[in-house]
Every structure is written in structure tokens, then in C-alpha cells.
Amino acid sequence: MHGLxxxxxxxxxxxxELLDILLQATGSLPGCLNYIVARDPADTTAIWVxxxxxxxxxxxxxxxxxxxxEAIARAKPLIVGFDFQIETEPAGGFGLPKS
Amino acid sequence: MHGLxxxxxxxxxxxxELLDILLQATGSLPGCLNYIVARDPADTTAIWVxxxxxxxxxxxxxxxxxxxxEAIARAKPLIVGFDFQIETEPAGGFGLPKS
Lengths: 99, 99
Fold this sequence. Notes:
The structure is a homodimer. Chain A is of the alpha+beta class. Chain A contains 3 helices and 4 strands. Chain A has helices at residues 15-25, 56-62, 66-75; strands at residues 2-10, 32-39, 46-53, 79-94. The first copy, chain A, has a 4-stranded antiparallel β-sheet. In chain A, helix 1 (15-25) runs antiparallel to helix 3 (66-75). Chains A and B meet through helix 1, strand 2, strand 3 and strand 4 of A and helix 1, strand 2, strand 3 and strand 4 of B. Chains A, B: Residues 2-90 form the ABM domain.
């Protein structure tokens, strides 16, 4: 499995709008096992996204899907930058689809 | 919802043993919606844990459960420290139980 943990910095006052776009963009994307979007309670413009994909290729392929491209285009003007971004290798846990 | 993102530093050579304990400890704990344990591919003694709970109280209560207490006791000697620990407020996403 391929995991991502990222902290997105939204433009001031734009966090809720960006959250909505990220929440709409998630769903049954091929190879996506987990995609959770969270507010940072201590940092009013920050959003944390934690993702689990079947593999790195399925994550990469998702970025070319028309619905994801469309979401990226809408999200881009609301994003100032990425404070933190790390790749992980999920080993398992609770909340992943049964294989 | 209440979220946690943490980076655990395992003792040298003990990451796999610690991973096994963390994976065994997860399951149908009351209020736990998501609990994913991952290796850090760039850091051979690091483990990332991302959690989503119904609320902070259910997470706190879980720490008193006998099976969790037992896992903590087994894990403790394998842990050097916590490099990173943050609370989040998950807003939604893919992979959470349908409410």
C-alpha cells in the first residue's frame, strides 16, 4: 500500500471552501482505500489530508482523472502551499477495505 | 470527529515488532472509525499512526480498555519517543463508516 500525509495551507478565509472541494473530490476513485480530510484546530488555515492507495501507481493515475483534474483546478487558487508532505507504507489497521 | 496523526520512534531493530503490536491492538474499539499504521520508507525506525475517533472522549476511554492497556505495556519498551503528534478535526472523506 502507498500512503500520503499532507498539510495544506489554504488562503486566508478559504479553508471551508477548500475543504468542500476536497470532500467532493473523494469517493470511489480506483485504487483509493482511504482519504480523510481534517481541519487543524490549532491553525485556522491548515488542512490535513491522509490517504491510503493500493499502490503509488493508482495514486498517480488518479491525478489524471477528469473529476480530479477539475477539482485540482478549482482548489488551486485557494491553496497557498504545502507545509508538510510525506509518503508512508501503510501496513494495515482498522478502516481499510477487507482484502 | 477527533483525529490524531503521530510519528512514533521505535528502538533500533524493533520497528516490525512494534508494528505487529499496533496492528493487533486495532480492531473494533468503541468509537474508533479509522486506525492506520504505516512504515516510514525514508526513516527505518519510524512508524506513522493516523486515527479517527467519534470524539476525544472515546479515544481517551480506549486507553483504559484492558486489551489496550496490555498492548501499551508490550509496546512501551520498544518505543524511544514520539517525534510528532497532532490533533485534527476530521471533516469527512472516503473510508469512514457511513453515518
